[in-house]
Amino acid sequence: MREDSVSERLYNGIIKENPVFIQLLGICPTLAVTTSAFNGLGMGLSATVVLALSNLLISALRKVIPDRVRMPAFIVVVASFVTIVQFLVQGYLPELYKSLGIFIPLIVVNCIILGRAESYASKHPIIPSFFDGIGMGLGFTVSLIFIGGVREILGSGAFFGYQILPLADAAAGKAGFTPISIFVLAPGAFFVLALLVVIMNIVRAKQEAKGRPLPAKNGCLSGECSGCSLAATCQGKSKAETVSKEGGNE
Amino acid sequence: MKENSIIKDTLILTLITLVAGLALGGVQYITAAPIAAANKAALEEAYMSVFPSAASFEDYADFNEEEANKLVHATEIGTDADITAASVAKDSSGADIGYVFTVTTHKGYGGDITLTVGIDSATNKMNGYSITDISETPGLGMKSTEPKFMSQFEGLSMEVEKYTVTKSSPAKEGEIEAIGGATITSRAVTNAVNAVMYYYKHIAGLE
Amino acid sequence: MTQLILIFIAASIVNNVLLSQFLGLCSFLGVSRKVETSVGMGGAVIFVITIASLVAGLLYKFVLVPTGFEYLQTIVFILVIAALVQIVEMFLKKFIPSLYRALGVFLPLITTNCAVLGVALKNVTNDYSILQGVVYGIGTGVGYLIAIVILAGIREKIEYNDIPEPLKGSGIVLITSALMSIAFFGFAGVI
């Protein structure tokens, strides 16, 4: 596949550099909203819309935005799209809004979005940037559905709200599945993610042994802050920005 | 030179912010109506589920939140629940047929639980409740949103002073069987219902 | 007063920001290698959240609500927090160098810590007054400190344990967090 072509970008986002599975980015919403596969889907798609549009706009403005104030400018762009998505969900999908709650506005500080703006959209033309956003967003969505699905199946025996494991009913003497409620609670989120990390570590070790290493983790879990949204502030470039941000905000 | 570039940077950033603000204003203007409609529909649905025979609902004009709660909290039924809204249910001819109250209890296991309770004033019996806001433990306290527990509240008589939660099968009138493993939630919901009942009896002159 | 104490306990222990609300996990997992640094990070978070909830609360109440611009809250809050962190950093550097040495390196990490923005937004959705909002902010910060220091303590202990290869690094940290999260369940229902 050609570098920066549409299909390459989609493949890159969904598989090769999957934000959650490979890079371990965006952990907060990954854990908080994945109590069911449907919530994961809703959160993932909301983030995808924001990612695609903000990548598009930031790429279009990349020559206009002065380097020194780029972070606040990115934040403004992302926050605007987030607010727009929030209103749309609130107005047209009130049920989803109720279950995602505060995590829709918190898309602003999702590591993935500012991370892509900084590392891809601000350096590449409009079309690849847009599809980079869609690819990354879909990769995020797939991961959220996966984690949400595992938690929902184990925690309530359902998938996307459909009961797929018949529940046990002690009173009626019916044998069946007893939901492991802990999986829809907070600790379950940590357990499922831990499991995922372990699987990925094994895959990683295997691939490395074959001489085809996966891209490095760059999320918060690896102990580096470079993947977290304001990547630049962690990499010693912070001083120039510190000053410019002041200038920008006042 | 440096001064100039700071001014330029600031100008560009201000411009971006301005455009963003304007765009948001536009979107807000467009979505304000659907959001209001969605909120209203959710409320109507909650009211309807506890008062299916009503045709419309109107705010109860004499409702005073502060007074109502002072009254309810001072009683001996021992409830901390706050009644936050009251509506009159009307049938298709516009006659009053009962009330719907919104009540919040703070004694849930996972925090506040908000429910709506419908009471039929012709029979002085409760139609049941519907939970609008809850963050209880799935599989335990969340069972308070399931018919098995909820149906115990359908048709409850106002003649009982207060309902209490029991961990075994209810032996006498005035007892509600707790959700297994979620007594705290069961108590919270029952207490909220007690608060509503007391207030209803007060405004209906049944004391 | 009772209500303020309840808000504080609820925010710090019962609904712990990290272990039950999942806000600010990035730094929770990233900066918890040593107890010493985690205390610094926790201190910085308490400091910034407190100021941010005060400033965001004032702005919301006295600027956004009177002008009818409530819908700009997300954008305003995040910019205010970003600016605030920078101002605090410069202020500390110039006037309280000792505190700057203790907290300075952590401050840039906090801008995008979702706990800070989360508290500002929650204060609005919960209809808190300015004072309640600040107490909620302090409580959240204290909860963050408690959780991150405990995790760092455990991580220091398990550092030399014989952990299966694939679990090394983030795997065992996540499992530790899960167990801590279960332990914190014991606090649910205390208020």
What is the CA-CA span between the terminal residues of chain A?
46 Å
Q: Tell me about the biggest sheet of chain A? A: 2 strands, antiparallel
Protein chain pair with the most extensive contact, residues per chain: A-C, 58 and 53 residues
Structural class of chain C: mainly alpha
What's the rounded overall pLDDT mean of chain A? 79
What kind of oligomer do you see? heterotrimer
Segments of chain C where pLDDT lies below 50 for 5+ residues? none
Rg value of chain C: 17 Å
- The beta-strand count of chain A equals 2
Low-confidence stretches of chain A: 220-250
Number of helices of chain C: 9
Report, as a whole number of angstroms, the end-to-end distance of chain C.
15 Å
Tell me how many strands of chain C there are.
0
The number of distinct helices of chain A, counting runs of at least 4 residues, comes to 10
Characterization of this structure:
The complex is a heterotrimer of chains A (250), B (207) and C (191). Chain A is mostly helical. Chain A has one domain. Chain A contains ten helices and two strands; from the N terminus they run H-H-H-H-H-H-H-E-E-H-H-H. Chain A has helices spanning 6-16, 27-32, 37-60, 70-92, 94-100, 111-121, 126-156, 186-209, 231-234, 238-249, and strands spanning 158-159, 162-163. In chain A, helix 3 (37-60) crosses helix 4 (70-92), helix 4 packs across helix 6 (111-121) and helix 6 (111-121) packs antiparallel against helix 7 (126-156). The radius of gyration of chain A is 20 Å and the shape is globular. Chain B is an alpha+beta fold and 207 residues long. Chain B has one domain (56-203). In chain B, the strands form two sheets. A five-stranded antiparallel beta sheet of chain B has the order 1-2-3-4-5, sandwiched between helices. A two-stranded parallel sheet of chain B has the order 6-7. In chain B, a hairpin with a 2-residue loop joins strand 3 (96-108) and strand 4 (111-120). In chain B, helix 2 packs across helix 4. The mean pLDDT of chain B is 84. Chain C is mostly helical and 191 residues long. Chain C has one domain. Helix content of chain C is 75%, strand content 0%. Chain C has helices spanning 2-14, 25-30, 35-67, 73-95, 97-103, 107-110, 114-125, 130-158, 170-185. In chain C, helix 4 (73-95) crosses helix 5, helix 4 (73-95) crosses helix 7 and helix 7 (114-125) runs antiparallel to helix 8 (130-158). Chain C is globular, with a radius of gyration of 17 Å. The model of chain C has no long low-confidence stretch (mean pLDDT 85). The chains are: A mainly alpha (250), B alpha+beta (207), C mainly alpha (191). Chains in contact: A-B, A-C, B-C. Chain B binds chain C through residues 17, 20-21, 24-25, 28, 109-111, 137, 184, and chain C through 10, 15, 71-72, 75, 188-189.
